[in-house]
Amino acid sequence: MNMEIDLDKLPLKRLEAIDEAGNEQFPLDIGYEEKRLNMVRRIDFSSVVEERDAKKQKNSKEAAGTQPWPWQSLVENLQVAQQELSIILDLINTVEANDAVTVAGMQRPKQLPHESLSDIVVSSATKLQRLRHLGRYFKQSSKALEQQVTRETRFYDSLIRLQQNWKVKRQHVGISVPGSESCFTIDLLHNSMTDLVLSSRSSILSTVHIDQDHAGVLTVKLPLRLCRRLSIEFPGFHSNHEQKNFLKGKMESVLHTREDEKMALTGEDVNEHVKDSHLILREMHRSIFQEQVFNLVNQKSYNYLPGVNVISMQDDCLQLSIGHGTYVSFRLLPSLEEEPNEKMNSNNQPQNRESGIRSTSSLGSETADEKSYPMDYLNFPDPASLEIFLQYLFHEGVFLKFKERRTYAPRLVMPSQPTSDGCNFLGHFCMTISHRIFSMRVMSMLEGLVARVPYLHLHYHPTWHSRISSWCLSLKVPLSILHSRRRIKPSESNDLKRGFRSHFHTKVVLNGDQINVSGEGTHEVGSLRGDFTAGCLINCYSCDLVDLPMVILQQVAGQVIHWLHEEALIIGLKVSRDFLCLWFSLDQGDKLGLVANVNAGDIRGCISWWLVFDDSSMEEGKLGATDDGERRSRKFLGNLSLETLYSTLMDLVSLSVYGGGH
Amino acid sequence: MSKPGGGPTAAAAAAAAQKQKALLQRVDTDIANIVDNFNLLVNIARVNDPPVRNAQESFQMEIRAARMVQAADSLLKLVSELKQTAIFSGFASLNENVERRIGEFNRLEEITDRLLERVGGEVAASLRELETHYYSSVQRTNCQ
Question: Fewer beta carbons below 10 Å: N end or C end of chain A?
């Protein structure tokens, strides 16, 4: 269906005609109603009418042949009405779409009072709901901000406390804009330690990241696999000393704390977390320090050290031979053994227990070679004390010197410049170990001697020097003898004035591996008449461990002889003294000798005594060659105590007084 | 502490003053945001006649509230920055604390050394006493 619509947009007067004279003829003004009718008429229904007529004619033609449907006309009328209505609706839509055209004469119908009130009520309710929603939003935001304030207060308080003892650094993440996130780390490396050898583990361990959990609690993660401790071991000797690890118990308590995260945190909990953080940092710092010690020992072992040879060298193990058949190994062991339910591993480090155990297994492979090493474990010093001593040497001899150099002449230190401090430090340490082991052997030997010589006392004199040990073997005259001496010579109340000693000392000093024995007590003849000089050392020996027992026994036996000589002089006997023999002069030129026999291997007693008769008819210095002659010329007395020796001396008094007959 | 004629100290002081000014400006901006948005929020809380305007104003109220919270959050971040600045820029207090700790540790070291000496002396005396007791004991004297 084609439809044409023609509307006037502007109410302008159109020129109807113009004549030749130029006169304009306008149409006559039409009234309002007439205009409306004209406008309506302009809507052309002609096509619809024509179509309707055509249909009528067609129907009339058909009706001549068929019966008419009674409702046909109604249907047709309705169809026509629908078409007209659709045309009108299209017209109205077109009119509405045209902004310049407004529907004239249309006004909003006035609202009734109840309608306006209901509108206001609805609006108020809607606004109230919005305001309540805003209120909830503000409350929620306030709570979140309060929690954030609490979190930040906890975190920064803990950070300030950590800063009191550690070097805290700040790193800005991303562009430095106000309010950007900052990353905090703790630098465990001292400025003066940068020149020292650092392994990759130490470098990783030296920077510790500080994290903040959702509650604002400051946490420090401990990378278990990277923390190692220095261990000194003697192959074949397993110390029962257990490394105290304060961290393991704390780790368990931290785990329990994390399980109770739902409970509100108190100030005490925050304190505990800070203390745990301190503990973890201390453990890592100690691990770095001990790794540096190990690395320096490893490095310095390349240099020549007298008496020290490298047996094996690995990343975490160094074995040295330090002389006297002694071997010592320096190892880096994991600080904490990882457990299957251990939760404290860092999230970005996959749990891998093999590396922590691999070093142990590598140690296990070395134990097979340890069977060839000496198993005299009783003579080994405590490894824990050696570990402390090694760290002390490193700290005093190397670390502080590096620090002083950087403090006073920071630009003059060349990291590649070799220093002798490290060599001295390792050499001194190895010599100390060697000395300690040797010292224990010497002491065990001395103790064995003293156990077999009842009147000999052993006293240990601490020298507080790492490579010097000192003992004193004292021989004391029993009090009963002293009392009897005073009974014999009551006028001589002060034995010292006469130069008579009641005790004799033998000093054994071990300096490094040099044994020096110095004995006192034996005087020259002339000194008996003069003033006594206490501490007159006349015997001084340097010997090795094999000869030491004999040297000491000879010294002690000499002191006993000296004492007996003095006692004999007190009594008034004519006596003379030889090295280990005391000769009594008898009548007719005979001599009776009391001879000391020293034997370090005698388990019944190291010093035994013989009584020897030196007949003047016999060649001097020779004893009887026949068996009968031996039984006549000498008699074995056995291992005698000092009281027995003194009583023997008293018996010899009568012999010397009344003659030397057998 | 700025030296006359300029230098690193003067530049540092100028930078610090500039930073202080920026921080104060941020504080003022944030607080002004909060106040202004709250005022606007109160103003548009009135119920209007056309309901269409109410929907528009409710949306505005949400925006104002969000801006207030944002300004508060910005203030909180500013406080965090100030705390960090106080922690990491207080060199005088840090150095003083380090010196104090060094003094404390040196004193502890001396105390420990004296303690070790005393312990060593007591150990030596106890060892001497034990040795004397042992050598005068019945077990030892019976061996003679």
Answer: C
Which chain B residue has its CA at the smallest distance from A179's CA?
A: B77
Q: Say how far apart CA B58 and CA A128 lie, in whole Å.
A: 10
**Cross-strand pairs, A537:** A520
- Residues whose CB falls within 8 Å of the CB of residue A286, separated by 6 or more in sequence, listed in order: A229
Q: Where are the alpha helices (DSSP H) in A24-112?
A: 32-42, 46-65, 72-97
CB A362 within 8 A of CB A313: no
* Closest alpha carbon to A387 in A286, A462, A312, A299: A286
How far apart CA B35 and CA A461 sit, in angstroms, is: 84
By CA distance, what is B87's nearest residue in A? Answer: A160
Tokens of A263: 């409970």
Count: domains in chain B: 1
Q: Of A170, A215, A73, A617, which is closest to residue B90 (Cα–Cα)? A: A170
Contact B87 A160 (CB under 8 A): yes
Q: Taking CB atoms and an 8 Å cutoff, what residues of chain B touch A161?
A: none
pLDDT in tens, A607-658: 899 888 877 655 444 444 444 444 458 888 888 888 888 888 888 777 666 5
Per the structure, the complete domain to which residue B56 belongs is given by: 20-143
Cross-chain Cβ contact B80/A152 below 8 Å: yes
The per-residue pLDDT for range A219-265, each reduced to its tens digit, is: 887 776 778 888 898 877 665 555 555 555 555 555 445 545 545 67
Cβ distance A145 to B47 less than 8 Å, yes or no, reads no
Interface mutation target, options B28, B58, B74, B134, chain A, most CBs of A under 10 Å = B58
- Residue A25 carries which DSSP code? E
Rounded to whole angstroms, the Cα distance separating B68 from B39 reads 11
Whether B109 maps to a domain, the answer reads yes
Given an 8 Å threshold on Cβ–Cβ distance, is B54 in contact with A178?
no
Contacts 24+ apart (CB under 8 A), A635-640: A635/A610, A635/A611, A636/A608, A636/A609, A636/A610, A636/A611, A637/A608, A637/A609, A637/A610, A637/A611, A638/A605, A638/A608, A638/A609, A639/A602, A639/A604, A639/A605, A639/A607, A639/A608, A639/A609, A640/A608, A640/A609
> For position A375, what pLDDT does the model report?
45
- Considering CB atoms only, which of A130, A149, A460 is closest to B76? A149
Task: Kindly determine whether residue B54 and residue A126, on different chains, have CB atoms separated by under 8 Å.
Answer: yes
pTM over 0.80: no
Contact A179/B at CB under 8 A = yes
Specify if B111 maps to a domain.
Answer: yes
- Give the pair of three-digit tokens for residue A64: 């001549």
Integer angstrom CA distances of residue B11 from A32, A636, B5: 88, 101, 11
Q: Is residue B1 part of a domain?
A: no
The predicted structure's pLDDT at residue A542 = 82
The reply to whether B12 falls in a domain is: no
CB-nearest to A454 from B47, B49, B144 is B144
Q: Is A621 left (phi over 0), alpha (psi -120 to 50) or beta?
A: left
Nearest to A591 by CA among A622, A557, A631: A622
* Distance separating alpha carbons of residues B49 and A201, to the nearest angstrom: 74
Task: Give the Cα separation of A427 and A418 in Å (integer).
Answer: 16
Look at residue A326 and give its three-state secondary structure.
coil
Q: Write down the residue that tokens 């005391």 correspond to.
A: A582
Q: Which one of A131, A134, A142, A481 would you mutate to disrupt binding with B, by most B Cβ within 10 Å of its Cβ?
A: A134
Contacts of A239 (CB under 8 A, 6+ apart): A233, A382, A383, A384
- Give how far Cα B15 sits from Cα of A171, B6, B25, B26, Å: 20, 13, 15, 16
Q: Is A21 helix (H, G, I), strand (E, B) or coil?
A: coil
A462 CB within 8 Å of a chain B CB: yes
| Cα–Cα nearest to A508, from A560, A444, A561, A455 | A444
Cβ contact, residue pair A179, B54, below 8 Å: no
Q: From CA A253, how far away is CA A440, in angstroms rounded?
A: 43
